[in-house]
Amino acid sequence: MLAYPLGKVLVLSTQHWGVSQIFSPAGPQFVGVDNYAQLLTDTEFWAVLVRTVVLTSVMAGASMLLGVAVALLMQRVPAWCRRTIIFALVLAWSVPTFISTEIFAWMTEYNSGVVNWALGVTPYDWYGDATLGLTVATAIVVWGAVPLIAVTVYAGLVQIPAELVEAARMDGAGSWKLFRHVTVPVLRPLLALLTTLSVIWDFQVFNQIWILRHGAPASDYYTLGIYSYVKAYAGHDYGMASAGAVLTVLLLVGVMVVYLRQIAKIGDTP
User: How far is CA 105 from CA 1, 118, 128, 140, 208, in A?
Assistant: First the structure.
C-alpha cells in the first residue's frame, strides 16, 4: 500500500508528464534527472523551501513551548481544574482540521471577524499580507497540536519519581532549577520525540493554508506541499510535481531517522 505509490511517484519524477502525455498513446518521455535539475534551479522552489523550513520551525517551536507550559500548569492546579483542562484539550484535539480552520477564518473575517472587533480595527484584511495570513495558519496548527503535546508531557511529568523532586528541593533548588536540572533531563527522550513528530507534521502542512485561501493561495503562501500540488493540478506538470514530492520525502528522511532513534532509545530504557 505504501511502496507502490512511492515507487510510482519516483518513476513519474524521471518522466515528462503533462496533459499531452495523458491523451497520447505514446506515453510519457523519460527525461532522467531533468525534472530535479529544473526544480533545483528554480528560484521559486528555493523560496518555498525556505518558507517551509521557517514555518515548520515556528509552528513546532510554539507548539512545544505552549504544550509544555500547559502540562506544567496542569501539574500545579487542583484536580477538578486539571480534569477541566484535559477535557478542553481533548475536545479541541477532536475538532477536524477543516472545522477549526473555518472557525479561525470566521474569527479573522474582513468585516465582521471577532478578532478585528476585539482589536478595534474593523475592517481589516489579515490575508492581504502573506506574513499575517501565515501567522493565522500557524495559530491554527499550534492550536491543534498543543493538546496532544500537553497531555503527553503531563503523563511524563507524573512519572518523575517524587523522591528525586524532594531531594532537589532539599538541596535548595527553586522551580526553575528543578525544571532545568530534573524535569528536562528526565523527559528529554519524550520531548525529543514530540519535537521530531511536530517537525514531521508541520513540514507537511497543507489544509490550513489551502482552506484559509479558499483553494487558491497566492505564491507567497506556498509551502512545499502546496507548491507540488499546484504544479501537478494547476500546471499539469506531473513529472515536476513528483520530483518535488520526492525531494520533500528526502528532506524528511533525516528527521525520520532522528524519530526512529528516539523510539529505539525509549525502548532501550529500563
Answer: 35, 15, 13, 10, 10
